[in-house]
Design goal:
Helix content: 25-40%
Radius of gyration: 15 Å
Distance between the termini: 27 Å
Largest sheet: 3 strands, antiparallel
Number of helices: 3
Number of domains: 2
Shape: elongated
Strand content: 5-15%
Order of helices and strands: HEEEHH
């Protein structure tokens, strides 16, 4: 997660002292209710934001980001980057398949 997104998430908590959790995306957009593709962030996790395992770390995997591990928002962003047309209402599985096909 980029530093600006982390600052946005922290600001949401600072502006709402009673808020205990938000759903945020990689851009720092926050909602109080679940949103597809948004990650749950709890107040007690604020200090650890931005300290995700680096590639090759001890996180149990190899740190590689695969289409299957990406959020819907990330998939759509990558497909847009690649100039691949997709239905805005497409399901994650369809977006994953489309991205995999266009990365070949």
């Amino acid at each position: 997660m980029n530093p600006q997104a982390i600052d946005n998430i922290k600001a949401a908590f600072e502006a709402n002292p009673d808020l205990q959790q938000v759903y945020a995306n990689e851009f720092g957009h926050c909602f109080t209710k679940p949103v597809e593709g948004f990650k749950l962030v709890k107040r007690e996790e604020l200090d650890s934001l931005g300290q995700e395992e680096p590639a090759g770390g001890n996180g149990g995997g190899n740190g590689e980001v695969t289409p299957e591990k990406m959020t819907v928002a990330q998939l759509k962003e990558k497909l847009t980057e690649l100039n691949v047309a997709f239905d805005a209402a497409a399901k994650k599985a369809d977006l994953v398949a489309l991205l995999v096909e266009n990365l070949k």
